[in-house]
Design goal:
Blueprint lengths: L2 E9 L8 E11 L6 E8 L2 E8 L5 E8 L2 H10 L6 E10 L2 E8 L7 E6 L13 E4 L8 H6 L8
Antiparallel strand pairs: 1-5, 1-8, 1-9, 2-3, 2-6, 3-4, 4-5, 6-7, 7-8
InterPro entries: CYTH-like_dom_sf, CYTH_domain, NeuTTM/CthTTM-like
Organism: Salinisphaera dokdonensis CL-ES53
Pfam families: CYTH (PF01928)
Amino acid sequence: MATEIEHKFLVVGDEWRDAAHARQDFEQGYLCGDGPASVRVRIEGSRANINVKAAVVGSVRAEYEYPVPLEDAREMLATLCVAPPVIKTRHWVAYAGHTWEIDEFAGENAPLIIAEIEVDSVDETFERPAWLGEEVTHDRRYYNHALAFSPYARWTS
């Protein structure tokens, strides 16, 4: 089984921007609402994929990802998604031996910025950069699937 071990954090300040060594625009939509898994289609530049993740909150989740033709992904985003697509720009930042993925959300999820780090084991330690804020790994609201159905701009608290 494919497993993702990931931690999510809010980002504070802009200090990370100068350290970003790559970036990519993403558009992703979800093909189902509730259930034991989230199923999304994502376009990343000229590539597309289907991703299935266990619908659990926490740092460890089953995850499967498969490439799909770009035109198929565009059609799925336009016709099959059960919520508006999530639009974001991902920035990659190398820091203390790890690569951080920093997602800067657009549209109704702006100005939300979340940093994620994938690790190899649940007990792996990592150095936290100064621009890292509160950990939100265990807060379902900050998962992309949740942001599709309940965008950040609509939150009341």
